[in-house]
Amino acid sequence: xxxxxxxxGPTLQGEVQIGGAKNAALAILAAAVMTNDPVRxxxxxxxxxxxxxxxxxxxIGVKIERPxxxxxxxxxxxxxxxxxxxxxxxxIRASYYLVGALLGKNRQAQVPLPGGCNIGVRAIDxxxxxxxxxxxxxxxxxxxxxxxxxxxxxxxxxxxKVSVGATINIxxxxxxxxxxxxxxxxxxxxxxxxLANFLNSxxxxxxxxxxxxxxxxxxxxxxxxxxxxxxxxxxAGTYMLASAxxxxxxxxxxxxxxxxxxxxxxxxxxxxxITEYDDAVRVSAPEPLTSTQVKTLPYPGFPTDMQPxxxxxxxxxxxxxxxxxxxxxxxxxxxxxxVRMGASIKVEGNMAVITGVPRYxxxxxxxxxxxxxAALVIAALAAEGxxxxxxxxxxxxxxxxxxLKLKGLGARIEKVSSDRELQKAxxxxx
Length: 430
Ligand code: UD1
Fold this sequence. Notes:
Strand order of the largest sheet: 23-24-1-25
Low-confidence stretches: none
Mean pLDDT: 95
Strand content: 25-35%
CATH architecture of the largest domain: Alpha-beta prism
Oligomer: single chain
Shape: globular
Bound molecules: uridine-diphosphate-N-acetylglucosamine
CATH topology of the largest domain: UDP-n-acetylglucosamine1-carboxyvinyl-transferase, Chain
């Protein structure tokens, strides 16, 4: 099992290039099976969640080529089965996008029930409500979700809760339904818009993505396309927060600054200097940061996927900060590890009360989930002494070349896979 060994201390300086958005890629790669023509998708991040999804797609007969590290060509013309048995797939949340895609295309789908990060109950009632409203019979049996329909008909669907996944799934299935679908109270995240743009480039008729009402006129078939995934808002935000926590000066390149506004606003509040360019954001951070209050909300609110990273930065800010988790009910599990590094944080229900400390101190810690893992690495970079982050697999689900990009900013971090390598890395880092 790989580990990161990190010697905290140096400020981060320099430039970092952001890759394609993982969450957009997962939706778009799944949606690409909906046409029988080849689809070329560029700017796909090289992260393990993407590999897991592609592997599962291959198992049902989807032909996949990867002409280079960030390009995937998908040919869904020879799908042999709409039933996916891949046990591994249930480890990623986005597995259920294949339900929307296959139900839309072939009127039948079955996939193992999704897993993903362990951050609380992750209900799928809104997905089921949406599929059922389109006329599908949906069943949860033997750890799988299956959906089947003789005919899919557009409908007016009001989501009881803003859900990225349900919005995406309903959008996919209804694209190839008969008639018009309206999704009210839809999610507005950038990757929802990216999926709509992708599907429209394949001949779909989707309007309103990015607002809370999405209108879809069903079409008979989709055609092939070439499409580039948007930059990853969360990867970018992670490096911005790393710069803040380490009192760095980092230019985060290849981003859409508008997607980062909720993050830049908070960084300004805690005393960081932000300069926005056309496709880059520079974050320079003074010492010390100042406290603030944060509540995670659906886009354009502060993203839940950035909650652990900002908590880590606020743990080093002067005064008392409050972070409220508004999306998932169990997303503060990493706080125990942070407290072991010297943080002063009390969690009550969905709220963390943080009293800033001047420094963290290195420790041996475990990443409980993807974003918390990245946040703990940030804490380690800002800490005095050595930190070992056990098990890098969670982080690699969503961050491409994490340690290499951090090294490029001057961080002292190595990935090691044995005790021998650990000893060598220690000599290198000292
Ligand atoms: C997606 C992202 C994830 C991010 C989350 C919120 C992907 C692959 N994952 O997850 O990184 O943290 O959006 O921005 O894109 N809910 C229900 N019923 C449902 C569906 C959701 O009650 O049918 C609840 C969930 O339990 C959660 C909230 O709605 O409390 C938001 O979930 P949702 O937006 O669906 O998140 P995901 O799509 O799973």
